[in-house]
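INFO  loader      accepted 1 record
INFO  loader      residues=539
INFO  predictor   begin
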Amino acid sequence: MKATIRKGDSVLNELTLGSEEIVIGRTDDNSITLDDTKVSRHHAKIHCDGDVYFIEDLKSSNGTLYYGKKITKRRVLNDDVFSIGPFTITFQTDISQPPPVKKKDAKVSSAKSADIPGSDEVIELKKEIHGLLIDKMDLKRANVSSSDSEEVVSKVRDAVSSIIKELEKKIPKKVDKNSLIQDIIDEALGLGPLEALLADETVSEIMVNSKDRIYVEQNGKLTLSNKRFIDDDQIRGVIERIVTPLGRRIDESSPLVDARLKDGSRVNAIIPPLALKGPCITIRKFAKTPFVVQDLINFGTFTPKIAEFFKLCVSSRQNIIISGGTGSGKTTLLNVMSSFIPHSERIVTIEDAAELQLPQDHVVSLESRPANIEGKGAIVIRDLVKNSLRMRPDRIVVGECRGGEALDMLQAMNTGHDGSLTTAHANTPRDVLSRIETMVLMAGMDLPTRAIREQISSAINIIVQQSRLSDGSRRITHVTEVTGMEGDKITLQDIFIYKQTGYDSQHRVLGHFEATGLIPKFVDGLRQKGLEVSLEMFS
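INFO  predictor   done
INFO  writer      dumping C-alpha cells
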C-alpha cells in the first residue's frame, strides 16, 4: 500500500506503508507533521491489522474526510482519497505485489472486499433497498432542487433506516451502515455515486463510460474509481435530474445535451443509440473558490512577469484570444484574465454553459439555449453576440468561439469594443488564425480570404496558447502578438515562449519560460502617449 500526501498540486510526501503505526498531526512528535491550523495536534493514524490497513480519526477538531464526509470509525484502506484540512492523502494498492492472506486474517480480508463501495455484493444490496424505497415513497417528484429540502431528506433517511433494519441479516458486518444510508439517499435524491466524487476537491473531472466504469481526473492523472451505478436506468435518472431544472431534455430524438450543475460544473451527457455501451456523462468540475493569478503562478502555468504582461494587455484594452486543446485550462485562464478588467466597466459574458466567475459587480451573464421538443426556440452564441452589442458593453467576453459568431466578434472588436476576450480550440497561434478564418466562413458570408484576414489582423492583438503537457500539467507555451499583414499572410511575433527541457525522475515535465526580447507594438504606443511601462518583463 502506497500513500501520497499533497497540498493542492504539490506532492509533499510519498511513502510505502509497513507494519508500523503512523500518526498524522500538526506537532513535531507525529510520524507525519502537517503544519496547518486546520490540522489537530494528533489528527489521525494509519495502522495495520494483519495484512489490512486502516485509517482512524483521533477525535480531531475538523475531522478526517472521506469524499467530503467525516469518518466516525476506522475505515479499511483501498484505493481511496482522504482529506485532512487543506491536505489530501491518496492511498494506492500495489497490484504488482499483492500481500499474502494469512488464515487468521481471513475474516478481515473478506470484510475488506465487502466494504468496497463498488463490490457486487453491495451493489445487489443497494438494488434491493432502492426497490423497497420506491415502493414506500414517490421518488419521481424528488429532483435535484427539491432534494435540498431538509424535510424531504429526513423522510427518505427515515425510510431507508427502516428498510435497513428489516434487512439487517443480509448486510455484511463490516459494511458501514451510515455510509450505506447516505449512498441510498444520494441515489434516491441526488446524483448517486457521483455525489462523493463531486465532494472530493482533488477530483477535477468525472467521466462515466458505463455503469461500472467511472473514471476521474486527479492532479492531471486519469484513474478508475471504485464507484459504480446500479444499472443504466440509474444513470438516465441522474442525467434527467441534471437537465430537467434547466428546461433541457434528453431522449432518443435528442440523445445528447450540454448542461451544468447548481455549482456551475459543466456537464455533457449522451445516451443510446449514440452511446453504444450505455449512457455516458462527463463532468468538468467547477472550482468552489475561483482560481486567482497567484494560484496559476504557483501551479507553474505562467510566471509573475507574464502575469504582469497580461494585466497590461487587459488594462490597455487589447483584444485577446486564448487558444488550446480540450482540457488545457482555457476557461480557467479566461476567468483569471477577466479579473483584470476594471470594476467600473460593464462586462457582458456569453457562454454555452455558464462557467465564468468574475469578481466585478457590473457583469451581465448570458447563456445560449437549445431548441425545444418541436425543434424551435434555439438561441445560439451568435444571436447573443449580436444582442450584446445593443447592451452598451465596455467588454464582451465569449466563453468559446466555435462557429459563425467569430465574424460578429471580429466586427465588434473592430468597431469600438476593444478589450474583448474569447477562447478557441487550436494547437498553435498560427492554427488559431486559420480556425477563425474557417469560422467566419461558417457565418455564410461570401467574403474573399484577404478581406477576412485583414479583419482578423486588425481585430486580434494577442494570442495566448495554452497546452496540457504529458504529465497532466498545464502551461502557457506561447504569448504571441499579431503584428499585421505581409501580402496575404498575417504576421506574428512571440513575446514569451515555454521551452521544455526534459523530465525528472517522477516523469514530470521540466522546462522554463523565456522572453524573446521583442517589445509589443502596443507597448511602444503606450509609451509614446506618456504612460510609464516597465520593459523589464521583456528582458
